[in-house]
Amino acid sequence: MDGETLVRDGATLSTESLQRAFAAAAGLKAPDPAAQDFIRQAAADCAPEELPGLTDEDVGTLLAGLWNFGRAFTPGQPAAVRLRRALGAGERDLGFDVLEIAQDDRPFLVDSVMSEVADGGFVVRAMVHPIVGGVSMIQVHLDSVGDDRAPGLVQGMDGALLDVRRAVDDFGAMRSLMERSRAELAASPEAGGEAVTEALAFLDWLNDDHFVFLGARVYDYPRDSLGGYAAEEPLFEPEASLGVLRDPERMVLRRGSEPAVLSAQLRRQIEIGAPLTVAKSNLLSRVHRRGYMDYIGVRRYGDDGKPSGEVRFVGLFTAEAYEEPARDVPLIRRKVALVLQRSGAAHGGHNEKRLRNILETWPRDELFQSGEDELLSMALGVLHLYDRPRVRLFARRDPFDRFVSVILFTPRDRYGSGLRQRAGDILSKAFGGRVSAYYPSFSEQPLARVHFIIGVTPGDHAEPDLAAIEAEIAEAARTWEDRFEAAVRDGAKASGVAATAISAKLAAWGEAFPPGYRDQYDAAEALIDLAEVEALEADGGVVRVRAFRRAADSALTFRFKLYRPKTAAPLADVLPILERMGLKAMIEEGFKLSPRAPENEAGARDVWVHEFILEDERGEHLSFDDV
C-alpha cells in the first residue's frame, strides 16, 4: 500500500500521506493490517473534488476520529450514532459537521442513512464507508447542521437504523412465514379457482427477488356471537410481529388517530374479497428507499370455509418488479389480458398495440391496485388522447378511503413545474386533502403524465365533480399565447374579419410580446394595445397616447400609455411635459413589441409601449381627451 496514490479527475490523494496523518491522529506508531484496510477503503471513497480546502493531514485526522469511534463499538449492540464538528489537523475547525455511525454490517445501511439525511434537507459534502471486522463505519460530511436540528437528525438516524436492524434480522422469519401462508392458501377451500392459482403464482414471483420484506404480522378477524364479522379492528399478537411491525404502534392500513373498527365497507370486502390484496400501506419506509411501503395481504380461511384472518406483509417492490413487462407479472398479466380482450380492439391492429403500450407504461402500483373495470375505462380514455392531446384526468379512490390516485395528462408542450404545482393545488382543494406524492412521466407521445397521490381523511373529504376539476386545470394549462390567440380570433369573428387576415395577424404578433409584458398584462389588454399600434401604423404617426383608468384605481389615479415606433420614448422628454401639466408620474413601465417582419426588414415594425401611472388631486375631474 505504501506510495499508492488515488487519482480523481487529475487530482491526487496520497494514501501514504493519509497513513502518516491517520497514525499520528489515532496515536499509533504505524497502522496495523486492519487499520490499513480501513484507510484503503476510505481513500477509495474520498474524491478530492469533494474535499476542497482539506489537506491529507485534515482527512487523516477525520478518518482517525471515525476509526476510534468504530473500534469502540461492541458487535451485536444497537447502532452507535454521533454528530460532531469536523476538526482537522491541529484541531482546526474545518467549517462543517460530520455524522458518524458504527454498527454491525447489514444490507441497506448506506441507502437508509443517506435517505434519512436527504429527508431532513441536509446538504452532503462527502461520505466514506469502510467495513472492518464485520463492523460498518460511516462518516458523512454535512454543511453545518445547527444546534436546533442536531437532536432531530440523531434521533431520526437511530430510528432508521433500528428499522434496518429489525427488517434484516427478521428477513428469514418473514420468508418462512410467506412460505407457510402460501401453503395454507394452496390448501384452502378456495384452492383450484383461477383467482387462487394466480395469487399463488404471484407469491412465488414475490419470493423470486421481486419484493424486499420489511415487516409481517398475522391478523384474526373477530367474530360476533352470530358468527358474523365484528365491528372491531382485526386482532394481532404484537410479540409475534416481525421486522418493522415489531412496533405495535405501527398500523398497516389505518392511522393511529382513526377509530379501531372495521367499517361496513371493509367487512363486506372481507366476505367477498379476493384471496390476495395488493395495496399501499400507511407506513413510510425508512429502509432502503423512502416511500410508502407496499402491503401484501394473504387471506386465511377457517374450518367453515370463511375468511378467518390474513397475513399482512409490508415492504418494497424491487426495481426488477417495476421493470418486468406487465404481461409477465402474475395478477396484473390477467388484468391486462382481460382489458385487451374487452376493449374491442382488433387483434394485432394499431389500437391494440397502442393499448398494450398504455398498459405496459401505466404506473405499476396502479396496475396492481386498480380493478379491471377501472383499468379498462382509463386505458380507453388515454387511447383517445393519443390523436387528440388535451388535459384529461383519471381518478381512482383507495378502497380503504385513505387517498385518491389521480393521473393527469396534458399536452407535452403545455407541461411545466408551474402547471404541476397549480394542478396539485387545484386537486388538493377539490378533494379537501393534500398532495402526498407526485410522479411526472414523459414518453415519445405528445403527452405528459403526472401521477398525483392526494391524501385525504377517511370519511371526511369531498367528492368533487371530476369534469369541473379537469376544466379548471385545462384553463390553468392555457398559456398567455393561447389566450391571446383566442382573443384575436374572438374579436375578428365579431368584426367579420376574413380568416386569412386573422392568420396573418397571429403570424405577425403571436410572439411579439416579451415575457415582462406577458407577466404584466393579460391578452385582452394586449388586444387593446395592438389596436392602438395598428392605428399608429395606419396614420404614420410618430407617437400615440391612450389615457384610461382601471376599475381598481382610486379617483385620483389614472394612467396613460404612450406608443412610439422603433425607439423608446426618453423619460427626459416625457417627464417635463407631465410636470408642466401639473401631473406627477408614480410608476413607468416600458416594453418593446417585436412583430415578425421579412428577414431583410427585421425590427422595422418594432414599437415601444410605455405605461405611466399618475396621481393628481384633480384626477377625478380630468378629461382623458384633454390629457
Q: Would you kindly provide a written description of the structure presented here, covering whatever features stand out?
A:
With 627 residues, this protein is α+β, with helices and mostly antiparallel strands. 40% of the residues lie in helices and 25% in strands. It has 20 helices and 21 strands. Strands 8, 9, 10, 11, 12 and 13 form a six-stranded antiparallel beta sheet that branches. Strands 3, 4, 5, 6 and 7 form a five-stranded antiparallel beta sheet that branches. Strands 14-15-17-16 form a four-stranded antiparallel beta sheet, sandwiched between helices. It is globular.
Q: Helices, strands, pairings?
A:
Layout: E1 5-8, E2 11-14, H1 15-26, H2 33-45, H3 56-71, E3 80-87, E4 93-104, H4 109-119, E5 124-128, E6 131-132, E7 135-142, H5 150-169, H6 171-186, H7 194-207, E8 211-220, E9 235-236, E10 242-243, H8 264-272, E11 276-285, E12 291-301, E13 307-317, H9 319-323, H10 332-343, H11 350-361, H12 364-369, H13 372-387, E14 392-397, E15 403-411, H14 417-431, E16 434-442, E17 447-455, H15 466-477, H16 480-495, H17 499-509, H18 515-520, H19 523-539, E18 544-548, E19 557-565, H20 571-580, E20 584-593, E21 607-615
Antiparallel strand pairs: 1-2, 3-4, 4-7, 5-7, 6-7, 8-9, 8-10, 8-13, 11-12, 12-13, 14-15, 15-17, 16-17, 18-19, 19-21, 20-21
